[in-house]
Amino acid sequence: MARQRVRFTFSADMVREPIIYRLGHDFDVVTNIRRADVRADMGWVILELDGTDDEIQRGLTWVADSGVRVDPIAGDVIEG
Amino acid sequence: MAFIKGLKCRECGREYPGDPLNVCDFCFGPLEVIYDYVTISEVIGHERIAEGPLSIWRYEDLLPASADDPVDIMAGYTPLMKAKNLGKRLGLNNLYIKNDSVNPSFSFKDRVVSVAATKAVEFGYETLACASTGNLACSVAAHAARAGVDAVVFIPADLERGKVIGAAVYNPTLVAVDGTYDEVNRLCSEISDNYHWAFVNINMRPYYAEGSKTLGYEVAEQLGWRIPDHVVVPSASGAMFTKIWKGFNELACLGLLDGVDPMPFGADQNTVHHPAVTTRMHMAQAAGCSPIVTAWENHRNQIRPVRPDSIAKSLAIGNPADGIYALRVIRESEGSGYAVPENQVVEGIKLLAETEGVFTETAGGVTVSTLKYLAETGAIGPDELTVAYITGNGLKTQEAVEEVVNPLVVKPMMGSFEAALESRVAAGV
């Protein structure tokens, strides 16, 4: 089993979509929200994901393909 | 010795020991160093600082690692130059340039990496690591060499060779990741969870970021223990911006600024604001990657991540870790933010070079163009004490200004030379 901490950022047109519900329902991934700020025009959620490596990757690929930005919780780690 | 008490979550306030941690286990908020300021106030003073080394380690009492045996390539103590020519051009009579492009690996990153590397060695790590497209890679590789530990530097596979040489020369393990920017980000984050390495800006981040406070201390010391009315600071993650502000406030609270009474740090030492600290903090970002400035301009409290598309690569962080805190500093200091149009970045580089003899990289061009904008719009008054931070060296981004190479080509004869000179004069260039 693997564990990943990620941040999802939702644009205005994605903020009403049940992305986290579907991630837990359609993939074998346990979602655990730790902090969030969701408003009408945008939102972000910081959460922990438990599952196999492959299943987490499959789920995150689906989230990103759905139009939700996926980042490490520490922000961009590549620096200039 | 270091007067560190531990770490504290910036979001929920939970405290942790001073270990190699960067995220709160409970809310996943960022951790920051907390200090024993009572003891620091008993030992620190202008004389003690003056007796210290000519590097960032003269401010040892306010750093989270001991200076007994620092990993030090002599970062810091860089020149603060009165910029008369640039000031005249912009109508600013009291302008200074903090030239941090002359650090040993040619950027301000030496300040933060020196602290992170010292702390990493203290923790017993044998490998320093980072993911970088330039300045950070050079600094990590150089400090690892100095410390006698291994270095692992992750770079995007398509990074120009010229940018890699400055790091490769120190003989780190270079890992070129063949993936998108986001994939490199995610991989490095995962690796930091799984390897016992000191990733300077991940698990060492609380300590690493504190090194930027020295940019505030040094300017104050070089101004005779005063702080400026305005500073202009380039921003990527936003960390340096917040730490310069923190540095000014620490000096004020400790009674180290001339004519300023000390003040207790209060319950949350990382957000303390001494009323005597009236410096307006102006943030400089390039329009192709300006998530913090955009949030400020739109009066938003959230940072919307962006996909960077800027020639100022050293500022190209689309999802800035400290963005929200930097935004608060802009507001608290009654400062501002400016997103420099991409076509004005090079103009800023050239303006600084032509007026002050300082060759900066693209980030410095962003700073100088922001300074120009602030002067032209009257946000900075003619006689107000202003410091612009130049944080990287132009030799690192020479391709940005290749157009300046336009020599007079002559035959080895006086006549040829004079003819060429006359034609140049006639053309008015």
Description:
- The complex is a heterodimer of chains A (80) and B (429).
- Chain A has 80 residues and is an alpha+beta fold.
- In chain A, 26% of the residues lie in helices and 41% in strands.
- Chain A contains two helices and five strands, in the order βαββαββ.
- Chain A has helices at 19-26, 53-65; strands spanning 2-10, 30-38, 43-51, 69-72, 78-79.
- Chain A has a four-stranded antiparallel β-sheet.
- Chain A is globular and about 35 Å long.
- The mean pLDDT of chain A is 94.
- Chain B has 429 residues and is of the alpha/beta class.
- Chain B has two domains: 75-106 and 212-402, Rossmann fold (3-Layer(aba) Sandwich), CATH 3.40.50.1100; 109-206, 3-Layer(aba) Sandwich (Rossmann fold).
- In chain B, the strands form three sheets. In chain B, strands 4-5-13-10-11-12 form a six-stranded mixed β-sheet, sandwiched between helices. In chain B, strands 8-7-6-9 form a four-stranded parallel β-sheet, sandwiched between helices.
- In chain B, β6, α5 (135-147) and β7 (150-156) form a beta-alpha-beta unit.
- At the A-B interface, β1, β2, β3, β4 and β5 of A face β6 and α7 of B.
